[in-house]
Amino acid sequence: DADVTQTPRNRITKTGKRIMLECSQTKGHDRMYWYRQDPGLGLRLIYYSFDVKDINKGEISDGYSVSRQAQAKFSLSLESAIPNQTALYFCATSDPSVSGELFFGEGSRLTVL
Amino acid sequence: KQEVTQIPAALSVPEGENLVLNCSFTDSAIYNLQWFRQDPGKGLTSLLLIQSSQREQTSGRLNASLDKSSGRSTLYIAASQPGDSATYLCAVGGSGAGSYQLTFGKGTKLSVIP
Fold this sequence. Notes:
heterodimer, A: mainly beta, 7-stranded mixed β-sheet, 4-stranded antiparallel β-sheet, 58% strand, B: 114 residues, mainly beta, 6-stranded mixed β-sheet
């Protein structure tokens, strides 16, 4: 099984719908991240969390919210999806006390019609 | 604000050739630098991580170097194989305020022709 698991892997939804993307990890890392990838723009950080009680906005947090339910779980929500949120979303984890290396999930492809 | 540039955006080479991928960054105050591989429609796989105090890291046919003073890193792939075809991403970790965030380049798409 993957160390960082994202669900769903693919989702098609309509404008205005609420969407939640979930991430769970078995690496035991405290730090978790949500990134978005768009063609030609690279990966951009949406939110990051250093532990259950520490959540921080990244570069492009507008229109998104997150919840850190446990050390192993970090969810990303789109309260009212819009077409320009169509993208590939990645969850990642790291442990800076070891090396700071980032480990990514397989991604969740979201299409907003 | 840190900016990361990868040149070229795409590269096509014949199988067996040695090649170098380039990554440059604007702020030399980095925590680390990481090279990733991404296959189409897939997640990112970490290839090599270089801490700011290191000059290079090696794994198999891959060697990554870091020159902080000039804001450059290279990923050297020896004896390329068709299975090396993928997009290679460079990401730089900042060092501000006791935490770090990765800034990614847009990647180099590598095609190794049999």
